[in-house]
Amino acid sequence: MTNLDHKIKNIFPEESMHKTPDRYSLFSGVNVPSFIKDWLIKKFSNDDAVDTEGLYSFVEKHIPTKDSNIRSKLLNGDVIQILARIIFESDLKSGEYRFQIPDLGIKNGEGKVSPYLARQEGLLKEGENWGVVTMQYVQPEGREKGYAEMVKFKPFRPYKPDYEYYCRARERFTIEEWVDFLISSMEYNPNSTSFESLDQKLLFLTRLLVFVEPNLNMIELAPKGTGKSYIFNNLSKYGWQISGGKITRAKLFYDMSRNTPGIIPSYEFVSLDEVKTISFDNPEEIQGALKNYMEQGSFTVGKSKLTSLAGMILLGNIDLDMNRRPINNHYFEELPEAFQDHALIDRFHGFIEGWYLPRISEDLKLNGYSLNVEYFSEILSYSRTLSYYSAVVKELLDIPKNADTRDTNAIIKMCSGYLKLLYPHVRTAEDISPQEFKMMCFDPAFEKRKIIRQQLAAIDREFTDTMPDISVRGL
Predict the structure, then answer these.
(1) CA nearest 201: which of 217, 219, 226, 179?
(2) Which among 292, 305, 285, 298 is positioned nearest to 344, based on CA atoms?
(3) Do 467 and 336 share a domain, yes or no?
(4) Are 429 and 295 part of one and the same domain?
(5) What are the residue ranges of helices labelled H in 65-174?
(6) Does residue 204 have a pLDDT over 80?
(7) Is the pTM of this model over 0.70?
(8) Which domain covers residue 443, as residue numbers?
(9) HSE-up (13 A, CA, CB side) for residue 359
(10) Which residue has the higher pLDDT, 132 or 157?
(11) Is there a domain that residue 227 lies in?
């Protein structure tokens, strides 16, 4: 074990686990995210070995696939208990809660929540949930069609993290150790030779900003094979990934025909993967709705205005030359036409130059101790609710009165995100040196907003590449 492994194991004895590629290979053919895999490995292992027989037995019994004939078992009168991804929605016309389990072929309209379960306050959350569900089949009666009835539901929340303990633990790590700790928590090997510098590791961690900072909007363009899809699809149950295809306003914001919220109000962040293959069914309408939402955090449904804290990140591929630099210097031309609106692009806070990140290799796969992904994702999610980090950032920055508002807000939001990730123990401006804040938070935030401005100035004369003269106080 490395010194960092010892530290993680000793400081987080219950929340950490030993991860190896071999242990994850046990899930070959089982389509579950990392937070479920970690929980299962922790449940069926010790430091030396995994109880593979027990793990396989649990998976076979409680995590079925589409080939498991769940529908047939329900029709035969079996009571089914499984751990699954469930989508809840309320039906205002009937006054019922409905559910679907897409991975098992239980479609919209085929599942209902029992009235007793529906009355339990705070149990059911609209949208996607992971949990243990018990269901049975209700036979057709008269004009009423048969359906699967959910009689029990236990949300998958194995950890209730102590955020203050996590913050106190941070003080026992150097900044270099903590950066490596975060990378290992993302399931990557911080000691890989693919990482060439602390700056490169910090760029890698920038992907986590949308996990911790509400209403943060980012763009990442990178060559294929840099792991961007994996991170946003596996590390948290609070995010949603759209991979290509056509997007409607109803899907994003609110489906008035079904009275159900869309993706944005249902999740903490939305990643649009393979963004070049994404299209809008009504581009002007959705562009207008996105511009309004990204500016104000609100959107209209009929005559009502609704709010959300969800951020957004665009993930796309970009072609590189022999020096691993973009062939096209106008980065935003790599985006689909739907996102070519310059006013819309200006509402994105920062740009991640993914060509500086390493390609995923065997050496990058974690083989050591790290936090359980479910615990880590709960920590990241909780930090979204904390506003004092933003207050600390504002106290540390000297912002001219004539500074552009969008540039200023973008820098503050990204600095706040970096502070949550790297210095969660900071509560006041006195808790961090101006030099360290500048190097680890302000400089990377400033540069990522600067790329947005420079790229806009290169394609639209209405924009300039001049950034506001914001600086760190005391330097």
Answers:
(1) 179
(2) 292
(3) no
(4) no
(5) 70-75, 115-118, 163-170
(6) yes
(7) yes
(8) 386-472
(9) 6
(10) 132
(11) yes
Query: Shortest CA distance to 41 belongs to which of 29, 31, 56?
Result: 56
| Total domain count, the chain | 3
Same domain for 211 and 334, yes or no, is yes
Q: Which two tokens stand for residue 405?
A: 């508002």
Under DSSP, the state recorded for 235 is S
The reply to whether 390 and 460 lie within a common domain is yes
Coil, strand or helix: which one is 407? helix
- pLDDT band for position 189 (50/70/90)? very high
Amino acid identity of residue 40, one-letter, is L
Token digits of residue 324: 């691993």
For the chain, what is the total number of helices (H) and then of strands (E)?
A: 20, 18
Model confidence at 71, pLDDT cuts 50, 70, 90, reads confident
* Residue where the block lists tokens 């243990």: 132
Residues 291 and 437 in one domain: no
Measured between alpha carbons, how far is 322 from 299 in angstroms, rounded to an integer? Answer: 44
Whether residue 102 contacts residue 89, with contact meaning beta carbons closer than 8 Å, is answered with no
For 416-469, the pLDDT digits (tens) are: 999 999 999 999 999 999 999 999 999 999 999 999 999 999 999 899 999 999
- CA 166-171-177 angle, to 5 degrees, is 95
Instruction: pLDDT band for 387, please (50, 70, 90 cuts).
Output: very high
In this structure, is residue 464 part of a structural domain?
Answer: yes
Alpha-carbon distance of 122 to 117, in angstroms, equals: 10
If asked whether residues 96 and 225 sit together in one domain, one would say no
Summarize pLDDT for 15-30 with one digit per residue, the tens.
Answer: 999 888 888 787 877 7
- Per 3-state DSSP, the chain is made up of helix, strand and coil in percentages (nearest 5) of 40, 25, 35
What local confidence, expressed as pLDDT, does residue 93 receive? 77
Residue 42, in any domain of the structure: no
| Whether 258 and 340 share a structural domain | yes
